Amino acid sequence: MKVTKEIFQVGGDRFSSPEDAAVYLLCFAGHAALIDAGCGYAQKRILSNIERCGVPLSAVEAILLTHCHFDHAGGAQSLKKALGCSLVAHELDSPYLENGDDEVTAAAWYGSAMMPVTPDRKLQGPRQTLSLGPRTLEAIHIPGHSPGSTAYLAESEGLRVLFGQDVHGPIHPSLRSNLRDYWNSLELLLTLEADVLCEGHYGVYRGKKAVADFIAGFLTGGRSR
Ligand SMILES: [Zn+2]
Ligand SMILES: [Zn+2]
User: Fold this and answer.
1) 39 conformational bin, left if phi > 0, alpha if psi -120 to 50, beta if neither
2) Would you say residue 213 has pLDDT above 60?
3) Beta carbons of 136 and 130 less than 8 angstroms apart
4) Cα 175 to ligand 1 centroid, rounded to whole Å
5) Which of 50, 83, 116, 161 is most exposed, with minimal Cβ within 10 Å?
6) Which CATH homologous superfamily contains domain 2-216?
C-alpha cells in the first residue's frame, strides 16, 4: 500500500502475518529504511513486498525500531541479517532486545520467544536527526507504552508523515509502561502537527485533523486537559 510515492506499507496484518504490527518502507532517492520489522513469522512476504514496491533489497540501509515489542521487533534479528542493514533503537528499550526479554517484549503474550538482537545504533535523549540518503528523519523519544518508545517523523511530498506506531498503547506493568509518560508523549505527538499518521495496528490516518483526533482520543477520559 502506498502512503506517498516514497512511503509504503510492506508488513502487518493483511500484508504479512496477523501477528505483525505494521512495517513501513521509506525510500528517498534510492536510500531505503524500514520502520519496524514485524514478529518474524512472515519475513519472506515482507521481503517480496519491498521488491514489489520497486525497491531493491540492497537499497535498505536500516531498520528503525519504534520499540522493543515482539510484534514490531521479533523479526529484527533475522530481517537485519537478510538485508545486511543496520538496526536502530532507543537505548532505553535496547536491554530488552539484547537480552531477548520475553516478558517486557511481550513475546510471551504471543506464546513465542524473543530472538535477541543488538542495535547498531542506540538513540539517546529526546530527539535525534537521522540521515537517509540526501534527506533527514527525526527520531522522537515518546516513552510511556515502553520506556524507549520512539516515533519517527519524515517529510514526503510536502507532508509531515509521523510513524507513531503504538499510539493507542496499551499501558501495562509487565511492559514497563508509564501512564504519566504516555500522556505527556501523546501531547508531544499533537504538537508535531503531522499530516499523515502511520500507526502500528490501526492503519494510516490522513489530514491534520484526523491525525490529531486519533491521538487526542487516547487522552480523553484520562488526564483532564
Ligand atoms: Zn504493537
Ligand atoms: Zn507495543
Assistant:
1) alpha
2) yes
3) yes
4) 11
5) 116
6) Ribonuclease Z/Hydroxyacylglutathione hydrolase-like (3.60.15.10)
Distance 29 CA to ligand 2 centre (A): 30
Give residue 145 CA to ligand 1 midpoint distance, Å: 10
Q: 192 C-alpha to center of ligand 1: Å?
A: 21
> Model pTM?
0.96
Rounded CA separation 222/171 (Å): 12
Average pLDDT, the chain: 96
Residue 205 CA to residue 211 CA, distance in Å, equals 6
Among 210, 195, 214, 215, smallest CA distance to 153 is for 195
Q: Give the distance (Å) from ligand 1 centre to CA of residue 201.
A: 6
Under 8 Å CB-to-CB from 88, ≥6 apart: which residues? Answer: 62, 63, 64, 65, 119, 120, 121, 122, 123, 130, 139
Q: Which ligand is nearest to the CA of 23?
A: 1
Q: What is the pLDDT of residues 144-183, one digit of tens each?
A: 999 999 999 999 999 999 999 999 999 999 999 999 999 9
CB 105 within 8 A of CB 73: yes
- Break the chain into its structural domains and give their ranges: 2-216
Q: What is the pLDDT of residues 27-40, one digit of tens each?
A: 999 999 999 999 99
Q: 18 is written with which cell numbers?
A: 496477523
Ligand 2 centre distance from Cα of residue 136 (Å): 25
pLDDT bucket at 224, cuts 50 / 70 / 90? very low
Residue list, CB under 5 A from ion ligand 1:
21, 71, 166, 200
Do 61 and 32 form a contact (C-beta atoms < 8 A)? yes
